[in-house]
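As a next step, the fold was encoded as tokens, giving this record:
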Amino acid sequence: IRRPPRSTPLYSSAASDVYKRQVFEYMAMQRTIVASRTPALESILDKDECVFYEPDNAQSLAESITEAAGELVENSVRTGNAYRKARHYSWSARAKRIHTFMSQHLSSNL
């Protein structure tokens, strides 16, 4: 079935924020991630941390789910990679980066 071309993508800024939060939760819980290949998600993940599928493509989604379900060793490596990356985005890691930034900039202005 051919669909008419879309002038705007299905995802929006607000929707991408929701997906990003879900992705961070999955990363922290060490869950398998099958993600739509959108700019928002590609800014967080790469192929070493999830299995991507092409947006608006049911066949691509089905193939990605099959791939993720069938490759247990590779899946374990991907979830481990995503978990390690998630630690960089934790609240405590963010607080440390802010503290370091503030310490460097405040001490140089005194």
About this structure: The chain has a mean pLDDT of 85. The chain has five helices and two strands. Strands lie at 34-36, 51-53.
